[in-house]
Hints:
Elements: E1 4-7, E2 10-15, E3 28-32, E4 37-40, E5 48-52, H1 59-71, E6 79-84, H2 88-97, E7 104-107, E8 120-121, E9 133-137, E10 143-148, H3 158-168
Parallel strand pairs: 5-6, 6-7
Antiparallel strand pairs: 1-2, 2-8, 3-4, 3-7, 5-9, 9-10
Amino acid sequence: MAETVTLKGNPVTLAGPTLNVGDKAPVAYVVTKDLAEKEIGGAKGKVQLIITVPSLDTPVCEMETQKFNNLLKDFSDVDVTVVSMDLPFAEKRFCESFNVANIDVASDFRYRDMEKYGVLIAEGALKGLLARAVFIVDKEGKIAYKQLVPEITSEPNYDEVLEALKKLV
């Protein structure tokens, strides 16, 4: 059954399966700001942090991406990707404008593979964008941590993410 979150207090259904800690992280393909394809999820022999946001062109997503960029600067052994539906050209401008260089920023516009993670918004004003979520995938490709932010306009719990990440690296 699909999960739900809220947008300004109104329930919104998400498309895709409900993934939980211990499940295999599906392989998904996204497009980086430089138009290269990047494979995320699956077993990579490296810890992965996959962060989904609706759009970098909103204050909360902007703030979240900048915070993760700063908080994760010392986690060079972790593959970090922030995924939105923004076009790679806009993502490149965003990264240049805000000096986002410690993490990858990518788009799901081409394959819409993040539906495999159950975070594609299926209805309402943001239909077709991604919900705000954080997944940590261990070296063997299993989901070690999941945070589906209940209210789309709220930030994730950064401390909880960092604590879970430190346990794996």
